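User: I'm curious whether this sequence folds into something compact or stays loose and floppy. Could you predict its structure so I can see for myself?
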Amino acid sequence: MSTHMRQSTRTGMNCHIKVCHPAFGEILAMTQDLSDEGVFIKHPEMCQLEKGTIVTGQVQNLPIEAPILKMQVMRITSEGAGLRFCKDDC
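Assistant: Here's the prediction. I'll summarize afterward.
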């Protein structure tokens, strides 16, 4: 069993994020924490996804339109899912 050592520090951050995936269409969820590498998103629909699933997300309610990011599900809990930001590798 391998353990992933987190490279970056997580910062508690609550903001609205729109997440899109064919399994549920579009949902408006809340972030729980954020790091340089990824984000944890709290929403019941996120719990239904499988590890490795690719979704897109866009932070809402900013003074500018945020970019749409591609993210990969890395872990799932009863509250939501931890995702990593895709660079060019997913």
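Summary: Confidence is low (pLDDT under 50) at residues 1-6. The radius of gyration is 12 Å.
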